[in-house]
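Exercise: predict the fold of this chain.
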Amino acid sequence: MNLKFQGKKITGVLSVLPENEVDFDDEIENYDFSRSQSMKLKLIMGYGKRKVVEKGTTVSDLCVFGMNYLFQNKLLDKNEIDAIVLVTQSPDHFVPPTTHIIHGRLGLKEDIALVDICQACAGYPIALNQAFMLLEQDEINKVVVLNADILSSKVSEKDRGSKPITGDAASMTIVEKDTSDTIIYGSINHDGKGAEALIIPAGGFRMPSTAETAELKTDSSGNARALDHLVMKGDEVFNFMQREVPPMIENLLDKANRHKDEIDYYLFHQPNKFMLKKLADKIGVSQEKMPNNIVENFGNSGSVTIPLVITYNLKEKVLNDTLLVCLAGFGAGLSWSSLLLTLGKLDFCETIYFE
């Protein structure tokens, strides 16, 4: 599905990271792999350090902390917020929606729209598209897009495919109406036939968690997981990414009548360094234009890797200059989404740590 918007802009991006850090080298003994094999995997995939929340910390905790930071530093007026869009795969509860918890803790006005979106790696562009749609309304002038996930606790300690990369993080993106005639191009795509390529089998209503779903079982690759843990079929996810993402980007650029070399940066979800390098090669853009350094420094926090790549790599550029950027997310669902927009002259662009 192709989308197009006019008169909208991003005015600020804040990333929130846990202070707690885990180093891949300290976890090597957990995996059914020799040390030399693990170190080779580290080099190829970009395994390094990852940020994970302390037990008991929730998505609402990270979001409230970040929002209060914006309020206290006069970067955002709480009375001007007309809508909140939260995209997460790790809500505080089944009921109520996590946006309502955040709304209550922040003491926001009642005349407000609250939207919870259950999406993973493609969630950031999808949430921004939703924010742009809300801004079509006369009485909505400012939307806060919250993007947060804390899935580190849902990955087995003995899963060498997912545990070394899974991190936790949150972000706040402010989206407002714009008087310019700049056009934003977007796309959203889904293929539910591939839903089991990335899944946590137990814990929902289909298969409630029990003592049996918590039992570890070893697969043919030597990874031990329970049904309560995240299962990723890495080869299927990689093939999906290589098959679907390049045509999506080609279509997006075609709709915008832009050549790939005109784009300043390709700010994509970061599953790992290997996949990003292969994707850059497949699309035919330089790796300098597609930063891939988030996982090795902070871990894969789902679609939060996209705003994080902005605050970590492009802070000075987007505060002082204007860039033409392509955002893209892809993963669980299966889902893949993208945006082509002008990003710059932001009111703020920061990375802070949760206390």
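Check your answer against the key: The radius of gyration is 20 Å.
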